Each structure stands twice: as structure tokens, then as C-alpha cells.
Amino acid sequence: MIRLAILLAMLSQPLAAQTAELTAVIGPGDATNALVLRSTTDLAVLGPVIEAYAEARSETRVLYEQWGSNDLRAISEQECQSGQAGADLVISSAAHHMVGLVNEGCASTATSGWTQALAPQLSWRDQLWGVSREPAVVVYNRDLLTPAEVPRSRFDLLDLLRPETSRFAGRVATYDIEESGLGFLFAFIDSLEATTFGGLMEAFGRSGAIATCCSAEIIDGVASGRYLVAYNVLGSYAIQRARRDDRLGVVAPEDYTLILSRAAMIPAGAAAPELARDLLDYLLSPEGRAGLEANDLMIRLDEGDGQIVEVTGTVETMERPIGLDPTLLVAMDADKRELFIRRWRDAFPQPE
Amino acid sequence: MPDAGVRATLSLKTRVALAVGSVLVLGGAVVLIAALAYGQQAAREAYDRLLLGAAADIATAISIRDGDAIVDLPISAFELMSLAPDDRIRYRVVGPDGATLTGDPATPLPEDGDGGEVVFYDATFGPEPARYVALTRRFAERSFSGPVRVVIGHTLLARRDLARDIAQNALFVLGGAGAVMALFAWLVVSRALQPLPRIGEALAARDSTDLTPLSLAAPREVAGMLTSLNGFMARLDRQSVATGKLIADAAHQLRTPVAAIRAQAQLAAAENDPERRDHITARIQDRAVGLGRLLDQILSRAMIIHRADTQPATLLDLRDVAVEIVEATDDLFVEAGLEVMLELPGRAVPVTGDALSLAEAGKNLLTNALRHGKPPIRLGVTPGPQAALWVSDCGSGPAEDMTQGPTERFSSRGAAGGSGIGLAIAREVAEVHRGRITMKTGDAGFVVAIELPGRAA
């Protein structure tokens, strides 16, 4: 029997520095084993996969905590320094945060057949593993854009924003990189990947593009027509919404598409590392992967018509997986971050 | 076939195998340590360069803006550091005032303060050991001046892996070389030891009375042993021949006197006339005394031949031998009412030999002179390359047929025991000492001498 309880914890603990956005208990209440899973993934998205896991392991109960990426990083670091891990498994979309934590020695080592089967760039030190596969996509409003207008690449987006009197001015949205760890990561990797990023930021700034928080909010805006186009939206959320909402179109940019892998680690000093390992193995196993795929967390880009993600380029050459390796530490550097954000702010004057 | 006297100890092959094995093991241990040290050194140098490259990358990315040093951390530095893929990385940039500009403030600084432009040092990263480099870049801008230090380090996993790899490869190569060396050693030793079983087989195949020298080709080391073996067999042969001679000699020489005594005894038993019987008894006694002397000489000769092969030659003064001869024969001369004139040089006459044998030979010559020569009798020693111990008398010497011919031992003159056997003893002693007997008959009389190769004093 599976019991799903959702508690809104945010309002009940207003004084705590970092708190989970949401907590849920998945699995039988009388289970002998208890596992704490902290994730930046929306419960609605990852929940079904965990439910399937709990169903397969009737003796395990999973306490699911949904966190914002910056808060999750802060509490993980704090707990690492104090030596008391509050979670058994941490999964975050802000891969650079996780690389930073592992680099600090906050993770414990685990190996199994499944972890070793991972692509080399999706595991680091046997302490950090990429469990999902999600492209950064462009979301647009099907009703408000003609097929010719749909931006297939960053160059198309630049072209749309170029005219002085562009109707896209002020109606393009992307993540606010200060509020969203994931947004920062995408922007940062963009800045390394191509020179288009400079032009894009300049165009965003000039046209008064909107930088705001959170995937759901951005996608809502596109659906409602407040934004015409959203840039660098995490594919999993976009696709889930697009399946239910005909107004939303999803494009994988053909110049290059960033592929994010949510990074999982077992904190050093976790109370139940064995259970965490078991859950990790489940997520990496074909069974778990099928579950992730069904919940749009394992997305394969395919050329051809009828796909939910529109792909116009050649998949092999456009995919840019974000590897879990020490180069992401650069994104964690205080000075670098400050410089980057300053550059960002110069382009995006805060619309006060 | 092993017998009770031969203890078969560890085989030579095993010994050589053990020796080569221990050399290889000891050498291997030394090489192992060297390989590990070398691997560590090589890995350290390789990754120190990587650290320095990353630090230099970061240092060049420092710029001065509005009087502040800004570090625009280059991704290339971390791509470089990623060449040690599993190592954790820690870095820190420190301004002139000691404040951390960016990076982890817990990153350790080198202990010796401002050690120089580049300082490598070992420290820790959390619980793990780590290696760091500190690179100093000096600024002399209007708004900012002083040294900025870039410190970057990482844990040692990649270094250890590389060191192990290098050491392992070195050991594989050296292990192979060791195996080849062992194989060659085995082949060489097997080949070197081949002559030994061959000699063994040659000896085993021999007839039990065959004491002739072995003639086999053998390496120099084994040839030495073979020569000794042949020498040993020759000695054995000589002794066995001598023993045979002694027995034949004794039988021959004793038969006649014993038969004579028996005949006299029969005569005495049949004689009724007391006077004649007394006469016969006196002759029996004479014969018996002569027989006793003969027996003495035969035994003395046997002793000399035996000593020749068993006694080691020592350095001695021939004059001492002459004095001893005179002392030993003193009572004989007193009995005969004669005196021996001793002629000795003032200096020592060194020869190598057996003093007892030489004295025995000299006694025989002197006794011969007493019995058969004419006084005055003289005994002397002459030094020189052929040192001589001589006896002279004024007689004409023995008959011609006695001084020549190879079978002196059968010559005996007279019932009292001949000078022949005494001479034969002297001759054998001379030969054993690689010398010879010379006899001269001149106006002054007869001189018999034992000439021996002399030695420088």
C-alpha cells in the first residue's frame, strides 16, 4: 500500500534559514527502512518514479524533500561542515553545486554495475552521478507565432529581437540567474560554449527581455501569451506542460542544445547510505530509467516529425552534455560569479 | 654410486640457482624501491607542471579594475586540472594585504612565507594529503601594487596512479630481464658442470686395478682437480708397486739366508762332536745377525719408499743430516775402532726433502764404506746448484756390475748382507728427491754421493 502525503512546510517554518519547499512521505508507513531524499525536482515530476521504487521495495519508506537549488546547496554545505547529514541521497539540477560539494569532500563513495555503466562524463570520483537527461529548450506560443517565426536557433532568436519595433521586445523570458542555480549554470555554460551568448545578452537587454524565476512561472507566461518565447527552459518541465497544452511549442536549438544531467550524491555521513545506494541503482537501472523516461526526465532528441521536441539539426552534432567534472568549479568561484552576474545585470537592467 | 664416506651436500646447480636467485631477489628489491621512487618522482614532476600551468593560467587572468584585483577564473585552468580526473581541487587567490580575493580561504599557504615566485609544497585537503603550488604575480599599477599569490592544489590520486603505473611497467621489464638472466644462468651452469659427470663416468667405467692417469679434456678449474686426481692415482700406483717389490724382495732375499740357517741347524742337530757343534752354532748365530740386518734394511727401504709419498718435503740443512748420520753410526765405528772425518762447509746447504729418508740413505752409504771400503772414511757435504752428500773411502769401490743396472735390489754380496741393498735405498731416496747417485773411483779412492737440486739459502 502506498500512501502519499504532501505537507506544505514552507509556511510553517518561516524563521529557518533554509527549508524544503515541500515534503512528502512515499511508501508504507510501517516500513522498517526510512530514506531521506532531497531533490530540486518537482515532486510531481519525480514522485511517480519514487513511488514505483517504494512499491518494488515494500520495506522502504522515502521521505521526499523538494528544495530550491541554492537552498539545497547551502544546507548540504552546512551539514557537510558540521558532519551531520540530514539526507541520504541528494539530487540537484544545479550540477555545479554538486561538483562543488563533492570537491569539498562532502560525498561518500559508491560503486555498482550501474554506476560503472554510466558515460565517463556523467560520473565523477564514484561520488557523483548523472541520473537524468534533460535538454535546455526554447518554448514558444504556437498561437502567437507563425511557423516561420519559430526560433530554431539562437541566431533566429537574435534576428527576431533585432528590429527596433520587434513585437518580441519585452516578451522573451529566461531564468533569473541570481535566483535560479540552474539558470546560472545554463547561462554560464552558454558563455563558454559560443560567442552568440554575448550578442544574445545584449539583445535581451536592449529588447527588455524578462529574467524571472522558476520553470513553471515562465512556462505559464508563454502559455498565457504574456511571453512569446522563453529561452533555456529545462526540457522536462516544458515537455510535460506541452503534452497537456497545445499552445506550447518546444524547440531544441539547432546550433547547440545543452543537455543537463541531474547530479546525485550520497552525502558523507548519511544515515542510510545502503538505502541511498539502492535507490541510486534503481534510478540507473533500466527499470528506473524507463520510469524517468515516462516522466520526461530521460529525454531523447529525435529528428523527424511528430516529436514533442522539435529538432531541426543533426542530433549528434547539436547535443552538448554538461559533464560532471571539475571545470564546473569555475562556475562556483565567487569572483567569477560576481563578474558574470555583473555582466548579466548590465544587460538586464532590473525592471523596477 | 654414493658410499658411506661421501656426503652428498646441496648440488652445485642448486647452489648456483640459490645464489642467482638471491642476487635476483635482492636486485629485484633494490630495483623495486628504485622503480617506486622513480615513479613517484616522475609523477610528481608531471603533475607539478600541471599545477604550475593552472596557477599561471589563473595568474594571467587577474586584472586590476578600479583599484581592485579581479580574478576572472579561466576555465582552461580547470580543464588542465581535470587531467587528474578524480582529484579534488582547491585554490585561493591572496592579495597583497593577505586577504583572500577568491577561492577557498581554508587553502593552506606555503610555510616559508614569501618563498619566491613559485613554491611547491605538500599539505592536506580535509583528511587527504594534497600537493599545492603558490605562484606570485607582482602588480605595479597606479591604483594597485604588490604581490598577488595564486595558490592551487589537488589531492594525490592521479599522482599515485601514475607512479604505480610507471613502477609497474618498470617492474614488468625488469622482471622479464630477471627471468632471461635466470634462464641464461641455468644454461651456463648446466654446461659448465658437464665435465664432472663425465669424469665420474670415466672413473666408474675403469677396471679396478687400472691406476693410469685419466686423460680427458676439461675446463681449467676442473683440470686442476683432474691433475690432483691423477697425481693421487700415480702415488697409489707407486705405493702398490713398491709394496709388491718389497714383498718380492723380502721373499727373495730372505729365502737364501733362512735356508742356510735351516741347513746349519740340521747339521748342528746331527753333529755329535761338541766342538764342531759349537762351531756350527756360532755360524748359525752369525747368519741370524746378518739376517736381522737384512731384515732391517728391507724394512728401512720400505719405510723410505712409503715416506717418499707421504711425508711433505720440508726445507732443511744438509749439514744437519750429515751430523745426524755420524751420530747414528757412532757405535758402529767405535766397535770397528775407526773414525769418520766430517767435512762440512761453513754455510748452510739448504735442500727440500725428508730429513729421515736422507739420513737413512747416508747411513747406508756410510755403513757400506765401513764394511767394504778402506779407511780413512770421510763424510761430507758440498753446496752448489747440485748439493751433494758424499761418502769417500780409500778403497777401489764395488764391482762394476753392482754400480749399474736397474735391479740393484737383487744384488747382494756376501753372507753378511750386501752393500747392494744399501745402495739401492740411497738411490731410491735420491730419486724421490729428484736427485741422483754418483760414484767415482779415482786415485784418492772411491766417492759415492747423493746429489740433490740445491736451493738458494
**Cα-atom radius of gyration of chain B:** 50 Å
Number of helices of chain A: 13
* Strand segment tally of chain B: 14
Which regions of chain A are unreliable across 5 or more consecutive residues at pLDDT < 50? 1-16
Mean pLDDT of chain A: 89
The geometry of chain B reads as rod-shaped
Assign an overall shape of chain A. globular
Number of helices in the DSSP assignment of chain B: 11
Protein chains sharing the most extensive interface: A-B, 18 and 25 residues
Q: What's the name of the CATH homologous superfamily of the largest domain in chain B? A: Histidine kinase-like ATPase, C-terminal domain
Alpha-beta classification of chain A: alpha/beta
Q: Could you say what the CATH topology of the largest domain in chain B is called?
A: Heat Shock Protein 90
Output the structural class of chain B. Answer: alpha+beta
Distance between the termini of chain B: 50 Å
CATH domain topology of the largest domain in chain A: D-Maltodextrin-Binding Protein, domain 2
- Listing every helix as H and every strand as E from the N terminus to the C terminus, the arrangement of chain B reads HEEHEEEEEHHHHEHHEEHEEHHEE
Query: Any guess at the CATH architecture of the largest domain in chain B?
Result: 2-Layer Sandwich
Give the number of domains of chain B: 3
- CATH architecture name of the largest domain in chain A: 3-Layer(aba) Sandwich
Series of H and E elements of chain A: EEEHEHEHHEEEHEHHEHEHEEEHHEHEH
Portion of residues within helices of chain B? 40-55%
Protein name (chain A): Sensor protein
Signal peptide (chain A): 1-19
Keywords (chain A): Signal, Transferase
Pfam family, one (chain A): SBP_bac_6
